[in-house]
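INFO  loader      accepted 1 record
INFO  loader      residues=598
INFO  predictor   begin
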Amino acid sequence: MKELEYPFDGGDLLARRKALRRQLLEGNVTRLPKKIAVFGGSTTSDIVGMLELFLLNYGIEPTFYESEYAQYFQDAMFPSQELLDFHPDLIWIHTTNRNITNYPVITDSTADVDAKFDAEIGKFTAMWKSISEKFHCPVIQNNFEKPLFRLLGNRDCYDIHGRSHFISRLNAAFSEYAQTHEAFYLNDIDYLSADYGLKEWSDPSYWNMYKYAMCFDAIPSLSFNVANIIKSIYGKNKKALALDLDNTLWGGVVGDDGVDGIEIGQETGVAQSYYEFQSYLKEISTLGVVLTVCSKNDYENAIAGLNHPEGLLRPGDFIVIKANWDNKHQNIAQIAADLNILPESIVFVDDNPAEREIVRSQLPGVAVPLMEEVEQYITTIDRSGFFEVTVFSDDDLKRNDMYRKNVLRSAQIAAFGDYDEYLRSLETHAVIDDFIPVYLERITQLSNKSNQFNLTTRRYTSAEMDAVYQSSDYIRLYGKLIDKFGDNGVVSVVIGHINGLSLDIELWLMSCRVLKRNMEQAMLDTLVEKCRQAGITHIRGYYYPTAKNHMVEKLYETFGFTLLSSDEAGNTVWEMAVDGYENQNHVIAVTGNTQKEA
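INFO  predictor   done
INFO  writer      dumping tokens
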């Protein structure tokens, strides 16, 4: 919904919240259901209402539990039966500097200040430990905004008695905890309040009248930031940028002005703005964000512009370059196909409002940010939260290289008349084995991201995945795929629950980047062999349809499973006898994890 995209009008959103909610809930839209508990140190009702809008817009349907006013500590330490029965999937602790109970005073000794600091940190770490033990779910914790006043003036930021200094120490301690604990995330209201304007954000009239810890119009900014963390946790981030060239990556039109006539570099303010935008894009690509070109241009002119000596981005920085005179929405659809991702994983960046509107109307899932003045390009992309980082793995660092090699693999298909011959030419081998600790983070990340090839779309928190790993009641498999172009990393996961002589497949997923490579057959062959070794006689598979996973609707049927049941919603249950099963993979060499990484 356009109204919920950055930059939004906070006051308008608050005024129209109910109407916007009705619009979002209209139609048959499949969303990911999540139960979210909000432990508030201030009034949270309007905050939760806005958070719901942003999450619905991201494809997440939340159900909320709200603590009573300022009962955040009690709910964390001594949860009610209602809260325990709620079984939250995620907990957000919405506290602010209003909830710091014991600031230093000027007469305090160093020991006194340290004791107050330890008491504040002790309160929060006790809450986090209690939540971890009782709920085993991700936690989002606000850090603290700066104080509205500085009793010591500029000295407040470094004197041990200053509130600014005390808050900075607390924030640093929160950051250290986040660095050392999985599934714990900080909502950086220290940055948010500064970005919004601290004086406006902390307007005391809203606390005195309503017990709001920020001004009313700042509520959407806060909720939007939290929504970005949540959608990232549950795999709703964007993956790629489709970038226009003329007046987007450089000033001017390369086809009209020539390479020497476009603006990029250090000579003028405008040229430097484009240079800085290219620098930002180059940096964001290091996070695994895929850069592509979608430009109405002659290909030769596009390449010449990208080779401008004052520019930072080169043709090799882009995984796919579509520079032609086709409609841009068609090029974006083709880019998605080339990358083997859904169009809705793409952000389209173009200075031309007409082109943006066409793409928005023809490809509704594609994000189309408002790009007006080049000086605001970085802010627009950055504040939109398309690529919010909650987990960052080695696979993220390698993603661009993986997509680049996927495009090479796709290009090689044309040289073969037989698809199996093409697969063999890739010299593919797989490592398929039981989970090992070094891959648990990636496995958990996959469970919250993969949608097209995901038969049940069950999501796991880090704690839940660790419990599966520790239990003897499961057969677990991860799969890595390697070929002559490189290592694709961990791309497939199967979790089966042992139920007597049967195995119930609770999760079977595969990354879209290795679709149609026979990896699914290799995973099934290995699963059957593990079942034989465990004395299991039957495997049951489950398919739960979503808006994205129709491609695997008949997967079990193609593998020889028998349909046991189906319902009106399209949910199906399948079964196959282990005895008599014959291997179906004939192109991938499969080994176990001989190194037994730990």
